[in-house]
Write a structure and sequence with these properties.
Alpha-Beta Plaits, globular, alpha+beta, ten-stranded mixed β-sheet
């Protein structure tokens, strides 16, 4: 049995997230079907995390077990010939038997894009949150810096019964290594790197930082919200369209 590691990029707009669901197009389900057509096996590739409906990935990592003798590198062309254009395999390689796309991950980086111009170009609309209203961007940066370090992120986790984005353990404690906003032209981009993320965590952070930008909250309120460990203390969930999984580190 061989362990194959894939690096994928995808436009998540037309998919119901990563995780396979009955009667819904998903990244995992579409990929599993393509692998099955090539190998003749029934496989369910495991991703580094379960991106939500509408969320994109620049470098999602997935792995699957196969008895197929096909050289690992050949899976790139073979899968891309079958997969829809919205999903592309960038790399395929043989991984160690103990490698697991989710459990072996040490850090992940997400990026969230907000388009600040008055009119959003139609070719960007699927990949940004269009927010042309006034924002105190320096205040948002000060707020973002306050989540760096190890914290309980219960206030920023989805309250629905879905499991954690990238692990089954019940703890909501995560360590954030980087959290910052950057303005480039008409785009305001949030980059966050951490050892793991909860369901909706990045989008809930962005929604809360926007409240800081609007003046509804002060930057220092982020510390209070973290300590509350209560989802209702934080802001609304930002739209999925602006979120990208950028990198997974092992």
């Amino acid at each position: 049995m061989r362990n194959i590691k894939l690096v994928l990029t995808y436009d998540g707009t037309d998919f119901s997230g990563w995780q396979v669901q009955p009667d819904c197009p998903t990244i995992q389900g579409t990929l599993a079907s393509a692998i099955g057509r090539i190998t003749g096996e029934k496989v369910l590739p495991q991703g580094s995390g379960r991106t939500d409906a509408g969320v994109h990935a620049l470098a999602q990592v997935a792995g699957f077990l196969t008895e197929s003798p096909i050289p690992a590198e050949n899976f790139v062309k073979a899968l891309n010939d079958i997969l829809p254009p919205s999903i592309r395999v960038l790399e395929a390689s043989e991984a160690a038997p103990e490698f697991h796309a989710r459990k072996s991950a040490r850090a992940k980086t997400y990026r969230y894009r907000i388009y600040r111009g008055p009119v959003c170009p139609p070719f960007l609309a699927r990949y940004v949150w269009h927010y042309p209203y006034p924002l105190d961007e320096p205040a948002m940066q000060r707020a973002a810096e306050l989540i760096v370090g190890e914290h309980d992120f219960t206030s920023f986790a989805a309250v629905d019964p879905e499991r954690h984005c990238d692990e089954e353990a019940p703890s909501n404690v995560r360590k954030i290594f980087e959290s910052q906003w950057e303005r480039t032209g008409d785009e305001l981009t949030y980059t966050v790197r951490g050892n793991g993320f909860l369901h909706h965590m990045v989008r809930n952070l962005v929604g809360t930082f926007v409240l800081v930008g609007r003046g509804t909250l002060k930057p220092d309120d982020i510390t209070r919200i973290l300590q509350a460990r209560d989802r209702s203390a934080a802001g609304a969930t930002a739209p999925a369209s602006g979120l990208f999984l950028v990198q997974v580190e092992y």
